[in-house]
Structure formats: C-alpha cells, structure tokens
Amino acid sequence: MTAIPNVIVFRSRPPRTGLRRPGALIRAAREGQAGWRRERDLPRLLRAERCPAPGVVLPRLRAEEAIVNEARIERAADYDIRRHVLLMIAILAEMRAAVAMAPQPAATRPGRASSARISAPGTAIPAHP
C-alpha cells in the first residue's frame, strides 16, 4: 500500500514592495489629497518645467520617496518631513490616476454568466459575478 502524504504545496510569495510607513505620514498624505493639483504641484515637487505624463512619473516618485524615507530612518539632519509628505501625496495621487486609467474588464449584464468558457471538469461559476 502506498502512503500519500497529506501536504499542500503553495507557491512562495514575492517579496512585498508596498509602502510601509508610519501611520501619521500616511494620514497626512491622505488628508493632503484634497488640496493636490497635479498640474500645479507635480512640476514643483519634481523640480521640472512641465508636468510629466501620467503613469510615467510613479517610479521616479517612489525612488525619491525611498531616499527621503532612508533619511527619516537614519534620523538625518537634512530630513525634510514636508517634502516627504508631498512625495507621499503625489504617490497616492499617481496610483489613483493609474488605476483610473487602467482598462476595465467588459461588463456583463446582470443575471447572466460571464462569456468565459469553463472547460475543466468540476469548475463552477462564481456565485457573485
């Protein structure tokens, strides 16, 4: 008789690349969203003459924020909390803009199943499409 181990193998998760920052910093950035004007504030923050295209600037913002955050962690004398909050406001705003620009899946009519075919035996249609 062959023994089958009762082990489930899961794929390892990729390392987290999300922003883990102090709650006060995140709250300040969320509150600052109301006053954020991309065309006015982003060029000033990036020290650029004009506003870059949406979606292009996010990696640069994250890189600059990482540098400022490292200064915060090291308690450097040149740490600028105002710039850090502005960078976080810009990152949140750019992430929201990227989500808004992302193509949305085709909407299905209420009460009808999606047009995807189910080919595997034993698969079920989701309860809430």
Automatic annotation (TrEMBL):
Region (Disordered): 104-129
Xref: InterPro entries: DUF6477 (IPR045516)
Protein name (record): Uncharacterized protein
Organism: Paracoccus marinaquae
